[in-house]
Amino acid sequence: MDIEVYRLFDGRRLIAKSAMAKALTLKSEGGNAFLRTVTRKGVRSAIDEKLWDKIENPISFRYLDTDPDSVVGTADGYEATTLIEVCDALIQARNDKRLAPSQAFLAVQAEIIVRSAAKLGIVALVDAATGYIEDVHRTEYLRLWQEFVSEEFRQWEKEFPDQFADMIYKLYKLKRRAQRSFKHPQFFGWFTRKYIYHPLANSNGAILEMLDEANPVVYGGGGRRYKLHQFLADQVGLPALRQHLWQVIGIGNASRDKTDFDRSFYRAFPQAIPKEDPNQFDFFEVLEA
Fold first, then answer.
1. Arithmetic mean of pLDDT over the chain
2. Where in the chain are the domains?
3. Which of 78, 127, 235, 247 could be joined to 132 by an S-S link, Cβ 3.0–4.6 Å?
């Protein structure tokens, strides 16, 4: 997307007030849409007074055409770093579970902006230290920005397809309350840990332990700040997850019920059979009984 930005003669970098709304993908891209959004319950509670003072007092400035002596008009804006501070507040509001479901997209977009800005920022720091002239290569910076945004967006793509939830409902002979709902019974998390993460890459739970350490439980009832798959590496972890996930979906779709699924699953992944000691009885004898 195109974002309206300016650099003042005193060196301040500004983002137009209306562009703040556009950056956060608000349906209405006017400056008032941005103000309405940050004043709503949930979002406002995560904004401290110092940031709120900046939001309430945008910078009024005159913008010029290519001729620096010709004034084209006036506008309101914020220093570019204010956008990052707003994004930080939105992410914190999500982590504290203050956002309403209708506001969840704000935190997603905020994460994209912050991560991308951080990556681009380190490139700029290296260029500044080595004497690379930013103005001459501004097109390269724009290209890098677009690449980073694209990469970050993929991080938020849904790793678990609808077919996975459909399979679990079928195995347990349950009906979905709402076809498009993302809310499922709590035991779905247990099922995912047992059949997806625990046997992943034949690790016998080692990968799951590392994921739990990186993404610990922080909320009552066992809630975590992030999804476990967000901590899997793009090059190895996610491809392995996707391959295993679709194998499990295939087994589940071919199974009549949960018992049939267990039998087929542990035949496909015998190393995942839970055993407390080497003398434990054979698991398949129980399944065949």
1. 80
2. 5-110, 162-288
3. 127
pLDDT per position as a tens digit, 73-89: 888 999 999 999 999 99
Cβ-contact 79, 59 below 8 angstroms: yes
Stretch (H or E) spanning 278: none
Write b or e for each residue in 143-163: b if 16 or more Cβ atoms lie within 10 A of its Cβ, otherwise e.
Answer: ebbeebbeebeeeeeebbeee
List own/partner pairs for 227-235 with CB under 8 A and 24 or more apart: 227/159, 228/197, 229/159, 229/160, 230/155
CA-to-CA distance for 247 and 263, rounded, in angstroms? 14
Beta carbons of 135 and 128 less than 8 angstroms apart = no
State pLDDT tens for residues 47-83.
Answer: 989 999 999 999 999 887 656 566 678 889 999 999 9
Residues whose CB falls within 8 Å of the CB of residue 199, separated by 6 or more in sequence, listed in order:
244, 269, 271, 272
Q: Which residues contact 224 (CB under 8 A, 6 or more apart)?
A: 215, 216, 217, 218
Among 26-35, 51-60, 108-117, 273-282, name the one with the lowest average pLDDT.
273-282
Nearest-angstrom CA–CA distance, 39 and 149: 27
Quote the DSSP letter at residue 27: S
Highest mean pLDDT among 101-115, 142-156, 205-219: 101-115
Distances (CA, A) of 4 to 14, 94, 223, 268: 9, 27, 39, 55
Is the separation of the CB atoms in 98 and 45 below 8 Å? yes
